[in-house]
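[recover] target loaded
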């Protein structure tokens, strides 16, 4: 991972702006105001117009991953979610580890709570994820084998998807199933599902989900698609190959989820190969969702104004590139507030400074990232 200096923009967000009044940013004397190609435009957006309304004006959905714990225990967080989001996705509550305490039982208490919360707040609700190699219950490895894996998966999909049928906007049917580093000729991840069911576990899952909820937008969700890198190229190529083959046989794949966990100092994000990939996905008649956006700042400078600006610039440049495609139907961040971001645990900074990957800071004030997302939504072509 190369470390590159971030250009010092000299824009210092005043306390007033951070407090959501969004007064114009204060220029330091040494910097002339000049809009560079890929930098977030600077005229602040009034936070009086929530992101969900900006998105709705463009025919888009905008929202976040949430947990029952944070929504039910943090009123400021809950208020921001209710104010800003018209779609939400459980960060952990619809994963096997939470839903399946034993091979024969289900625990829907947290997922139901979140589904009811979404309905009560007139938000769309996403499901994440039916087939994933992580967050599997402790009994899974010793219990699952080639004889029982397929019926277990089919029962899970029929039960879980069936339970929320008509209440779910879209399901991540498969998540991160392409992993070229596993060196398979088909590029698939050597996961427990692949080992116990075979490469057709993807088709089996999509067909079962379509049967259980014909209205849900069935999504193939993937990470590491956004960079101009050998991994990015390989993942995009393998995904397109599988899509062409599966769609030609009528497998009901309807959308692609771009996880969009971007790395703040990477300059090879959303380049020409990625743009071409989005066009190819759109030409296949598939919808596109930005499903888990955040910007990891572990290699960005400690200075908060500089770091926030680099993060805002990347949010703006990435979303502007993606939203050019009218097949994009939703933009979700993987959390609303820096204080609850998974990156604090999984990608902490070496200097132990708090991470700042999301649109709200730890005090639930909108950060420059909020402004960049607002601007990208405002500038998006209507769907
Ligand atoms: O809630 C328990 C808590 O009771 C327990 O004390 C604690 C210690 O073990 O664990 C807590 O559960 C953790 C859970 O997050 C809630 O915070 C799990 O251990 C931990 O594994 C889980 O991590 C989640 C991870 O997926 C695995 O499910 C992250 O929050 C979540 O942000 C992350 O999200 C993934 C997407 O699903 C797929 N794409 C990448 C993304 C980031 O890794």
């Amino acid at each position: 991972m190369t470390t590159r200096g971030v250009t010092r923009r000299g824009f210092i967000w005043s306390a007033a702006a951070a407090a959501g009044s969004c007064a114009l940013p204060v220029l330091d004397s040494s910097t002339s105001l000049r809009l560079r190609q890929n930098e977030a435009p600077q005229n602040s957006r009034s936070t009086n117009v929530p992101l969900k309304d900006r998105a709705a004006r463009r025919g888009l959905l905008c929202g976040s991953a949430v947990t029952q714990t944070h929504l039910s225990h943090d009123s400021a967080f809950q208020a921001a979610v209710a104010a800003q989001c018209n779609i939400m996705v459980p960060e952990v509550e619809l994963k096997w580890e939470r839903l399946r305490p034993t091979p024969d039982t289900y625990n829907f208490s947290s997922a139901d709570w979140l589904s009811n919360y979404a309905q009560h707040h007139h938000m769309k609700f996403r499901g994440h994820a039916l087939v994933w190699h992580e967050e599997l219950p402790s009994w899974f490895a010793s219990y699952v084998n080639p004889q029982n894996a397929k019926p277990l998966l089919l029962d899970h999909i029929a039960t879980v998807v069936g339970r929320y049928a008509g209440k779910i906007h879209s399901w991540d049917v498969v998540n991160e199933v392409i992993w070229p580093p596993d060196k398979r000729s088909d590029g698939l991840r050597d996961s427990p599902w692949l080992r116990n069911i075979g490469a057709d576990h993807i088709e089996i899952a999509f067909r079962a989900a379509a049967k259980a909820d014909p209205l849900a937008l069935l999504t193939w969700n993937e990470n590491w698609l956004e960079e101009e890198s050998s991994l990015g190229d390989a993942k995009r190529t393998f995904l397109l190959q599988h899509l062409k083959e599966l769609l030609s046989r009528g497998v009901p794949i309807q959308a692609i989820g771009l996880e969009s966990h971007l790395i703040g100092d990477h300059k090879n994000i959303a380049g020409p190969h990625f743009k071409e990939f989005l066009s190819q996905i759109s030409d296949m008649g598939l919808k596109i969702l930005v499903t888990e956006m955040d910007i990891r700042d572990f290699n960005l400078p400690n200075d908060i104004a500089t770091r926030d600006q680099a993060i805002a610039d990347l949010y703006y440049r990435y979303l502007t590139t993606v939203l050019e495609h009218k097949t994009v139907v939703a933009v979700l961040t993987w959390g609303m507030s820096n204080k609850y971001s998974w990156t604090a645990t999984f990608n902490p900074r070496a200097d132990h400074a708090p991470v700042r990957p999301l649109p709200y800071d730890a005090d639930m004030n909108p950060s420059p990232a909020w402004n960049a997302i607002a601007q990208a939504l405002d500038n998006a072509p209507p769907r």
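[recover] notes: The radius of gyration is 21 Å.
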